[in-house]
Design brief:
Length: 270
């Protein structure tokens, strides 16, 4: 199987929950413990053998990201960067479509930078390894208290018992359904999708077909989950990995402060 070399960073969000920090600075360029959120994903990309990074940005932030890449590209000499614009804020699935021409022929990684992942092994490398084994889309999962599931995409699962060599100790699940922000009583589990995926061209094609069929793509109309749900409907496999590391949610001011303190403590112990 061809090696995964491309990473998509959808960074077009306006970061409304991080106001006033995002009044002048795009959410993913906000520093946490001394470096921008996006940089944690880029460092992981380098350690994982990624060669190309596609940033999908809001048109209002294009110049700021161009400036960032110009200033920091030397820090990541092994990465080639592409900048694409999401002109309509039509959801995180729609955010992949400006990069369709770059992604349509091979599997690729997607990371949402407002989830910082702390793990022993580079996250992208681990996701890619699992993709090579199962040869199907794989999602990063986290188990949370059931009372909190209404804020997330929640999956129904069945455990994969025979995992083969190299993944025996991992908690791997076959996804049976995906429910966006369900009521607690209607959630199929307490496993939520967090900011990491390996996706196939088929998932991307699903998203494009849906987008092309809509007369108007409204705000947040096309979440990434739609492309995965179509895979399930047509009988193809989608897997999830309940990872062993720690996720730092940086999507709110309160959580951003908590992440800052956690990273400071980790640096102090290191």
């Amino acid at each position: 199987m061809k090696k995964i070399t491309k990473l998509v960073l959808p960074v077009a969000g306006l970061g409304k929950r991080l106001m006033p920090l995002t009044k002048k600075t795009p959410k993913n360029l906000i520093p946490v413990n001394g470096k921008p959120l996006i940089e944690y994903a880029l460092e992981d990309a380098v350690m994982s053998g990624i060669q190309e990074v596609i940033l999908v940005v809001n048109p209002a932030h294009r110049e700021q990201f161009k400036k960032y890449l110009k200033e920091r590209a030397k820090q990541f000499p092994g990465l080639a960067f592409h900048l694409r614009v999401q002109h309509t804020p039509a959801g995180n699935g729609h955010a992949l479509l400006p990069a369709f021409d770059l992604l349509k022929n091979e599997p690729f990684v997607v990371r949402f930078c407002d989830d910082i992942i702390l793990s022993k092994e580079p996250l992208i490398k681990s996701l890619a390894s699992l993709f090579y084994h199962y040869k199907a889309p794989i999602l990063l999962l986290e188990r949370i208290p059931k009372k909190d599931v209404s804020r997330y995409g929640v999956v129904g699962v069945k455990r994969v018992r025979s995992q083969g060599s190299g993944v025996k100790r991992e908690k791997i699940y076959e996804i049976t359904k995906i429910v966006e922000k369900p009521k607690t009583s209607q959630a199929p589990s307490n496993l939520i999708i967090v900011g990491g995926y390996v996706l196939t061209p088929a998932v991307l094609r699903n998203l494009k077909q849906v987008a092309d069929s809509l007369p108007i793509v409204a705000e947040d109309a096309l979440p990434l989950a739609v492309g995965l749900q179509i895979e399930l409907i047509v009988g193809r496999k989608v897997y999830g990995w309940e990872f062993n590391g720690k996720r730092l949610d940086c999507g709110t001011l309160e959580n951003l402060e908590k992440a800052q303190e956690t990273l400071k403590r980790s640096a102090g112990r290191g």
